[in-house]
């Protein structure tokens, strides 16, 4: 799921458990060129670019050959193997590579997936803990191999991991996921950013604005692909860490949010939840559903839903109103009467 959503992902597992082989097999099954880079035998300049004087006072940072090959292909998989053997200087050089897919003066295509593998530092050759900034750019997943899987693979061959195909336009649903995450953080503001106290914990997933955004994207991708709850939970925990992730997943179950399509089908039957975080999440999901398919009928129905929040919960509906104002369908002439309730907000945002 992380590869399909193009979210940088790190697999943690013991040596000899097939991480490298599985990633290469996955790339081959997807028809993607795979460039394997072992960080421990690289210099910082292999990621930051080698400075080259081009004449006068000009200097450019030349990218290595593996980066140029990925850029020429337009797609592919960058596999950073043995990540915990990279010394701190190399980890610092990797920051822009992982997050921005930038190598020297070369920007890799957005369709390049970044996957890393690592042994726990105590099991790695000359292992280092990951720095907090690098760890915060990755979704951390446990690579677990059962004896039954080993026996089956030895007898029948090793099947590559299956990467689901996401439907076109799936990214629009990310707005709804962001709204759900935002509702949770309104209720639990202390978890918006919580840097870990120890170096060992800093090398794993931990909550920050970046990783919450990552979790929202992964949730949207998981919903689009129809994957099960176990995979969804692993992705959330991998992005924001076990503590914050477990609390968020429990909150999701407790919320039991209504289906936005059912709400749009009968907006007059919508009952505004008494809890502010639940109301915020439900309205964000409705607005995101309309943004994904903005027909005049659905747009008007969503405004009727928001109108039911006034006067008691107008502030909770403000974010959803902004989303609806941005996705006004073409050809709409007559404005829903409920939009007048949010006119000052929409006008101040320059969306009137």
What's this, in brief?
By secondary structure, the chain is an alpha/beta fold. 47% of the residues lie in helices and 12% in strands.
| Biggest sheet features | 5 strands, parallel
* Broad structural category: alpha/beta
CATH class of the largest domain: Alpha Beta
Q: Could you state the CATH homologous superfamily of the largest domain?
A: P-loop containing nucleotide triphosphate hydrolases
Mean pLDDT: 87
User: Count of DSSP E strands?
Assistant: 9
Number of helices: 16
Stretches where pLDDT is under 50 for at least 5 consecutive residues are none
Known CATH architecture of the largest domain: 3-Layer(aba) Sandwich
CATH topology of the largest domain: Rossmann fold
Helix content: 40-55%
Radius of gyration: 23 Å
Shape: globular
Looking across the biggest beta sheet, what order are the strands in?
2-5-8-1-9
How much of the sequence lies in strands comes to 5-15%
Instruction: Give the ordered list of helices and strands.
Output: EHEHEEHEHEEEHEHHHHHHHHHHH
Distance between the termini: 38 Å
Q: How many domain units?
A: 3
List the helices and strands and how they pair.
Elements: E1 9-12, H1 19-30, E2 34-38, H2 45-48, E3 50-55, E4 58-62, H3 65-73, E5 76-81, H4 88-100, E6 102-103, E7 106-107, E8 112-118, H5 132-135, E9 139-142, H6 147-156, H7 174-187, H8 199-202, H9 209-225, H10 229-240, H11 242-255, H12 260-265, H13 276-292, H14 296-307, H15 314-326, H16 343-348
Parallel strand pairs: 1-8, 1-9, 2-5, 5-8
Antiparallel strand pairs: 3-4, 6-7
Helix pairs in contact: 7-9, 7-13, 9-10, 10-11, 13-14, 13-15, 14-15
């Amino acid at each position: 799921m992380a590869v399909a959503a193009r979210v940088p992902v790190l697999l943690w597992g013991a040596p000899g458990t097939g991480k490298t082989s599985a990633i290469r097999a996955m790339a081959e099954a997807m028809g993607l060129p795979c460039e394997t880079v072992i960080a421990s035998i690289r210099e910082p300049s292999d990621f930051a670019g080698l400075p080259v004087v081009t004449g006068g006072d000009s200097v450019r940072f030349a990218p290595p050959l593996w980066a140029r090959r990925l850029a020429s292909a337009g797609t592919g998989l960058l596999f950073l193997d043995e990540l915990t053997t990279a010394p701190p200087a190399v980890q610092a050089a990797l920051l822009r590579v992982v997050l921005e897919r930038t190598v020297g003066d070369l920007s890799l295509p957005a369709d390049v997936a970044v996957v890393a593998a690592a042994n726990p530092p105590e099991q790695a050759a000359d292992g280092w803990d990951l720095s907090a900034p690098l760890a915060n750019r990755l979704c951390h997943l446990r690579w677990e191999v059962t004896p039954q899987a080993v026996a089956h693979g030895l007898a029948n061959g090793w099947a590559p991991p299956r990467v689901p195909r996401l439907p076109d336009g799936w990214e629009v649903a990310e707005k709804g996921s962001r709204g759900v995450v935002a509702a949770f953080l309104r209720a639990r503001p202390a978890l918006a950013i919580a840097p870990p106290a120890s170096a060992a914990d800093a090398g794993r997933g931990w909550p920050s604005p970046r990783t919450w955004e990552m979790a929202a994207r992964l949730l949207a991708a998981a919903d689009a692909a129809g994957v099960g709850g176990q995979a969804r939970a692993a992705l959330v925990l991998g992005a924001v860490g076990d503590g914050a992730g477990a609390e968020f997943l429990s909150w999701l179950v407790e919320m039991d949010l209504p289906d936005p399509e059912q709400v749009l089908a009968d907006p007059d039957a919508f009952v505004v939840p008494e809890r502010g975080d639940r109301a915020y999440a439900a309205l964000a999901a409705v607005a995101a559903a309309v943004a994904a398919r903005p027909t005049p009928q659905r747009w008007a129905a969503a405004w009727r839903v928001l109108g039911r929040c006034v006067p008691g919960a107008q502030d909770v509906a403000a974010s959803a109103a902004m989303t609806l104002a941005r996705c006004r369908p073409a050809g709409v002439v007559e404005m829903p009467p409920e939009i007048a309730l949010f006119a000052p907000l929409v006008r101040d945002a320059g969306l009137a």
